[in-house]
Amino acid sequence: MRSSRKLLYTPDRVHAMFSQMRDDLHELAVRHASEVAALRAELDHVWDLYARLRAVSLARTQAEAELADLRREREIARARAAERDWNQLLQ
Known about the structure:
mainly alpha; 78% helix; rod-shaped
C-alpha cells in the first residue's frame, strides 16, 4: 500500500546515510583515542619532570639543613677554642 506522498529518502539512501554516520563515528573515535594517547604521554612527561624537580628541591633543602648544622658546629668549635679572660666581666 503506497501513499500518494513522494518519498524523501529511499531505504537504500537511509542505509547509506547510516553507514556514513557509522564510519564518521568510527573515525572520530580513532582520532579521540589518538588524542587521548598523546595527552597521556604529555602528562606522563610532566609527572616525570615534577618528580625530578621535587627530588632536586628535597636535595637542596637537605643540603641547606646540613650547611646550617655545619655552621652551628663551627660556631660551637670556635667558642670552645676561644680563651676566656677570667678577669673580664661577663656581659
